[in-house]
Sequence to fold (1094 residues):
Amino acid sequence: MLITCPYCGPRDVIEFTYQGDGNRERPQPASQDLDAWNAYVYDRLNPAGDHNEIWQHSGGCRAHLRVVRNTITHEILSTAFARGGHKSADNRAEGRS
Amino acid sequence: MSPRRTETGGRIDRLRTIRFTFDGAPYTGHAGDTLASALLASGVTLFGRSFKYHRPRGLLSAGVEEPNALVTVLRSEVREPNIPATMVEIYDGLVAVSQNRKPSLAWDIGAINQLGGKILSAGFYYKTFMGPVIGPLKGTRFWMFCEHFIRRAAGLGKAGTAHDPARYERMNAFCDVLVVGSGPAGLMAAKAAADQGARVILADLEAHFGGSANWSGETIDGMPAADWAQRVAAQLAGNDNVRLLPRTTVWGYYDGNTLAALERVTDHKEVAAKGEPRQRYWAIRAGTVVLATGSFERPLVFPGNDRPGVMLAHAAERYAVEYGVLPGQRVALFTNNDSAYRSAVALKKAGAAVVAIIDVRGDVSNEMRRLASDAEAELLAGHAVVATEGGKALTGLKVQRFDAMSGSLSGDERSIHADSLLMSGGWSPTIHLASQAGAKAEWDPARQAFLPPKPTQRWIGAGAFTGSFSTAQAIAEGRAAGLQAAGGTASSGPLPVVEAAPGDPDPAPVFEIRAKGKSFVDFQHDVTAEDVRLAHREGFVSVEHLKRYTTLGMATDQGKNSNVPGLAIMAEALGKPIPEVGTTRFRPPYTAVSIGSLAAERFGDLKPERLTPMHDWHIANGARMYSAGLWYRPMIYGLPGETVEQAYVREARATRDSAGIVDVSTLGKIAVQGPDAAEFLDRVYTNMFSTLAVGKARYGLMLREDGLAFDDGTTWRLGEQDFLMTTTTANAGKVMQHLEYFLDVIWPELKVTVTSVTDEWAGAAIGGPNARAILASCVTGTAVDNATLPFMGIVHGRIAGVPVMICRLSFSGEMAFEVYSGAGYGTRVWEALIEAGKPFGLVTYGLEALGTMRIEKGHVTGAEIDGRTTARDLHLDWMLSKKKPFIGSAMMDREGLIAPDRLELVGLIALDNRALNGGGHIVEELDEANPHDSLGHITACCYSPALGKYIALALVKGGKARHGTRAFVSDPLRNRFGPVEIVSNHFYDPDGSRMHG
Fold:
């Protein structure tokens, strides 16, 4: 699997660390809504198809990326920095389960 | 000359004799021989004993698919089991032994299992190992007792236990075109692609390129096919853009056109050249892959088809032509297709008498009849073999009239005297890699074979792999594939001209001759045709279930020979056509892969090491080193004759009496800088850092998002926007990643940068009643008295002229200081401190004494912050700020995390004055025979010089409430039982008067 890092170009997956489901929303820090926290900490989408994921280029520039990956074919549909411009419509995939 | 060696022919070098042993007996062969061909030439027919029934077995094949002749190769103490003898190239001094026999191959006690064949049928384990449900043995371990013997009787070679000293390497390679297989198709593909200028890798699992050209006896461009193949391979070797990888098995096809291959670099050599690895793991990223992997000949299923001397027809041809070895003197062939006729002619030419060709087909073409008469063989069309005779070698066979349409036998049995029976049940393309790459194979009724699926990745098939079994087709398809893969279109002149025996590629749809006796489908797992039918009668209809129930195709050969016949028999039992029964998907690896090759440089002398700046000093001064992750750290600085315990007790005692110094350079250090650094730390730590004054440090605790404790350490405020965070050694990487994640993904608005500076700083912690006096005697540029440097204060000064940063903090419980300098000056500062400490009796201490003093103080480390404990469990709830949210604050008060029966940190004192063990359990009542009701476990233990007792830290239910009570340690694995007292984790100086001074 190759992931194209916006800084470093196409790199082997072994340079990256998976950092989880990119669809999770962290509640506001002061939130006491335990259900929301529970969903954030424990609930993960597990779609057979396009999935919005966070990957860190830990063996490279260390940037976190939003990656849309097809979990069946491992095709990478898009990559973008997690910082800035994140969650824009074109690189956010709703998980299909 | 050995009895079965031909006078001439083959690629072996008859002038070079190689000596080796098999089962302890000396043998010779020639350079170029495999273990299989050399033993066959020496008259060996018996190579192994079968898996379940311990039946005698000989060579079935000449290649990678060999199911029977598995051997263990020994290199001094290291044993590698289950290698096909057909894939072992002999070298002087080779030591190989047979497997699954006791006491010897010829006299095997396990052969008694043949008598119990009915009991050892399909599903034997499932039906047997449910345990007695009634009777005197009910509820006992009787079955586990029996299983021990059954497991010893079944199975293959034994894995070794000796350390493997071999080196393994890993290589990454990139190419435009990867060609897998070097038969005529693969050679043409590689050549066509190389001529287009593409970067080409050509890999073949055999030692010599050429594939079937090496033994087909055909002529290409007017020369023997083997010579043609050598010429093309030599041309390729001269191209800069071609990399040739012989002895390289491409065993995995992964997404992104990434393929995994194993190169056996020195397995065929007596002695490896300097620097050569044993094996090399290749990760190959290919633009396009040309799959020219050829095909496997299938056995026919008939009674006694596993007797030594029964062999695949092409394998016999290969032994005769490629190695100059005749599998027998009187040879019979049994076939359902035309390809065996060519084998018959080849064997005749090599000097064998071909006594009969038995063909299940009633109508045999005139061309085949002509080949049969060329071979001077009697042709028995419309016949089948119904039995074989002989013990450890074939002596004869019985044939009967056979109707290929109905599968029925008729007429009288006729005996034929022969010492070799060669069978051909048609050919199956080697589609494993294509199957791994994606889509499902498709059944071709004409070829009676599964053909490769449509590519889902960038690969192109060529030759027998696609079902094109003739060499002329292989050459044409290979060139076309190579051109296409390289993006070329130009036709490069006329194709090489092939002269070959004629033959129809389509076999008769006959897989099995049903007659009395055991007919084997899967030779390696001893699965018979009757086992497959039994599975059907017992209700197994899915091919996946059939496979698991009978274990068909699940041995080390992964059913390379047996899958299709097994399916065909199942389909017949179900009354369905084969495509409706389906096939199983092939998965990597294609052949066995050594674990060593996968570990490669991550293991052994290529593994990276992290050394502190003072490492050489430690070694020079008698430190015994620990490896902690990748780090090496001093464990003790032992004196001559001292035990480890004596050493650490001396070091800890001296530190508490006067002063000690320890290398703390391995602590994780992260620079946290920026306008929002203080705010960020407030969110990351459970306690406040924005209130910390510049020039002061604070102990901090981090939680995970789920509210459990994550890591602890001190963070120093060096400037308004400049913090130096320290982490535990083990968690340095994880904490860094944690901080980066929050800054990058969750709070990108925070203006903070984090930088790992672990390797930039050398750290020395000096502690004890005289620590301050030692510092005062060597530090310039700053005072270190209580007013200038109070507890948790930071000063900057110089030691031996080197700028240092000193923070007064304590892990040992003594008055202590951490002295940080630039890593390059670490040893200079360290030596200056040692020198200054001499008048005070300063000792160096290692991790053991460090651990001892921290246990005495009741400080937590990774043993207690184990991913299951909360801040409250560790009595760190005083660090949980109520003034601000922080990571984990919302989740840490969940019901289960504040339950009263959680494991809490306590101290233990051994009341029997014996050492405690980490991992030992705490119980209320001691029951050595039946340990039960654990209250918790020991996390760290030591002998405490300060208390004069064996003590430990433990996580115990109810924790604090049990202080002052007695319990027992129960550690059945190490047979350690005894009374303990549960006390506070703060054993020593609980009010901290020593460190506050």
The first strand of chain B starts at residue 13 and ends at 22. Chain B is about 20% helix and 30% strand. Chain B touches chain A through 19 residues (CB under 8 Å).
